[in-house]
Amino acid sequence: MTNIIWGGRFKKELDPRVMHFNASLAFDKVLFAHDITGSQAHAKMLARQGLISNPEADLICNGLEVIKQELEKGLLEFDESSEDIHMFVEQLLVSRIGDVGKKLHTGRSRNDQVALDLRLYSRDAGTDIKKLLHDFNEVLGELACVHAQDKIPGYTHLQQAQPIYLGHFFSAYQAMFHRDLGRLHDWHTRMNFSPLGAGALAGSTLPLDREWVAQTLGFNGIIENTLDAVSDRDFVIEFCSVASIIMMHLSRLAEDLILWATQEFGFITLDDAFATGSSLMPNKKNPDVLELVRGKSGRVFGHLMGILTVMKGLPLAYNKDMQEDKECLFDTVNTLVACLEIMTPFLRSVQFNTQLMEQKANSGYLNATAILESLVLKGVPFRDAHHQVGEWVQTAIDKNCSLDEVIKNKL
Ligand code: ARG
């Protein structure tokens, strides 16, 4: 018999190489607080159902609370031989409170436990991200107001197209991030159901109260089907998908601002505190923050593909492949949080060179479409008006003068 938790039917110790390969503690340790919150609710439910006594539940809950506080303060070392955060916490509890600790896992499997922990973790992460996104969108809203009347060239194909207002540009991004907030909200509504009580895959013969645990942990209800409860990672995929869309929006904004910061555009000046220099070229001022935001979108998209690929071939119910869901999710959360945390102060620090923007919007032939439409209002068929204005533009180019000069006396 071995010392390992499933040692009853095993005659040999686990090969240390397998132990290391199998272990997830190095990354799933970030789940410790959520794991403990879930276990405390589970222990209380066991007591309510008469499966353990009230003093036993108290001993377990208090023991877990102390462990949580010590982990929060960094007083404990994570020991990889525990394999994952769930076994680590349980083994620590047993080493402290003795045999009563062995009752905690009654009616539970790590399969429903990890599904619960990951939902609690992502629910909190979603709440934090919503707040950060909301703050970022407020800055966009402020900029949209401040620059409501500042004219800039608008582009299609990155060629000057029609004049717009800088405020209009910021409102566009504000609308995108507003939709992203909606996506996070929808995701939360869909994911906020509790898997606990599904056991390994088939529930339990014990009289568990799944609804009570769900309610206690702030869920809207339980995941009815136990196979679905332990094998569903849609909430991770959907989160990574929403995060990818947010990163795509951030990346587009970063790209616009990188262009605007070039000497060729000169539309914005980067604050010295938010730009970097070159180790070689003394003249350089680089938009590293924006480039990193644009670049980090790649890894978030990669995580979405990663988790989709992990899940696509898995038979029901739980498979160890699903341990690969965590690093995708954690890195997606960390990357998105880091990008939003830097982009909010970054945007506040940018100086907008509105005079130059206006000058560019007034030169070129950006008023051509408006002139065309004034002809249409006078009854000229659209295609004829288009042709006529096109000729005037060509004349202006040939004479190197403005469109207004070409058409004066002609309208
Ligand atoms: N560390 C595992 C994971 O992240 C926990 C669940 C393990 N379950 C099992 N039956 N081996 O998925």
Automatic annotation (TrEMBL):
Gene Ontology molecular function terms on file: argininosuccinate lyase activity
Localization (cell): Cytoplasm
Gene Ontology biological-process annotations: L-arginine biosynthetic process via ornithine
Gene Ontology terms: cellular component: cytosol
Reactions mediated catalytically: 2-(N(omega)-L-arginino)succinate = fumarate + L-arginine
PROSITE patterns: FUMARATE_LYASES
One Pfam entry name: Lyase_1
Residue ranges of domain Fumarate lyase N-terminal in the record: 8-302
Record keywords: Amino-acid biosynthesis, Arginine biosynthesis, Cytoplasm, Lyase
EC number(s) from the headed UniProt entry: 4.3.2.1
Domain called Argininosuccinate lyase C-terminal: residue spans: 365-406
Pathway(s) the chain acts in: Amino-acid biosynthesis; L-arginine biosynthesis; L-arginine from L-ornithine and carbamoyl phosphate: step 3/3
Family, similarity comment: Belongs to the lyase 1 family. Argininosuccinate lyase subfamily.
Alphabetized HAMAP family for the sequence: Arg_succ_lyase
NCBIfam families found in the cross-reference section: argH
Stated name of the protein: Argininosuccinate lyase
The species this protein was found in: Fluoribacter dumoffii
